[in-house]
Amino acid sequence: MSRPIIAILRGLTPDEAKPVGHALVQAGIDRIEVPLNSPDPLESIRILVSEIGDRALVGAGTVLTTDQVEAVANVGGKLIVSPNCDVSVIRRSVALEVQTWPGVFTPTEAFSALQAGATGLKLFPGSMAGTAGLAAMRAILPPGTQVYAVGGAGPENFDQWIRASADGFGIGSAIFKPGMSVAEISDRAQQIVAAFDEAVR
């Protein structure tokens, strides 16, 4: 069962990529982004694609330029996540046939992203927009628009965000922080999966 949860592995190192990737997939999380401000992120993405690319959607976060989109695609990444709405990044991702999830905060940004071909929208920072902000924006978004809440959304409030129409989530430090053991990452991932499953019942 695939869940609409993207694990954000900020700070992941290539040495950690294989064990962490396997732990997340086994816990039930099959969407993984390695932010490009991590140590040697392209090598980590390459390793993750090699190890679990047949079972997980792997790519990069904090993608800001078209050159970065191309670099991620060149190592097999299929997911581009950005903190902002850059039409050129979205269009290059579409051209390379990889998923693109730009960060948006306003209806103007949301519509610009969708018109450029975004796969879905990353509402960021979710803690600033809040569930009320998402609910208000949903009223004017095209039917079927996928919106993931990132920042301020997690197992403690999955149910509130889902009621406000969130389709999925990006989860960072609640799953992974540099220096965590694989066992702890696995345990946290399992708890998040269980919380999500409970929230959607």
Describe the 3D structure:
The chain is α/β, with parallel strands linked by helices and 201 residues long. It has helices spanning 14-27, 41-52, 66-74, 87-95, 107-116, 126-138, 158-163, 182-199, and strands spanning 5-8, 31-35, 57-61, 79-81, 99-101, 103-104, 121-123, 147-150, 168-171. The longest helix has 18 residues, at 182-199. The radius of gyration is 16 Å and the shape is globular. 43% of the residues are buried. The model has no long low-confidence stretch (mean pLDDT 97).
**Can you tell me the CATH class?**
Alpha Beta
- What is the assigned CATH homologous superfamily? Aldolase class I
Tell me roughly what share of residues is in helical segments: 40-55%
Q: Ranges with pLDDT <50 over ≥5 residues?
A: none
Q: How would you spell out the order of helices and strands? A: EHEHEHEHEEHEHEHEH
Kindly report the CATH topology: TIM Barrel
Please tell me the total number of domains. 1
Largest sheet: 9 strands, parallel
Q: Which percent band covers the strand fraction?
A: 15-25%
Structural class: alpha/beta
Mean pLDDT: 97
Tally of individual helices: 8
Feature tags:
globular; 201 residues; 9-stranded parallel sheet
Describe how the helices and strands are arranged:
Blueprint: E1 5-8, H1 14-27, E2 31-35, H2 41-52, E3 57-61, H3 66-74, E4 79-81, H4 87-95, E5 99-101, E6 103-104, H5 107-116, E7 121-123, H6 126-138, E8 147-150, H7 158-163, E9 168-171, H8 182-199
Parallel strand pairs: 1-2, 1-9, 2-3, 3-4, 4-5, 6-7, 7-8, 8-9
In short:
With 201 residues, this protein is α/β, with parallel strands linked by helices.
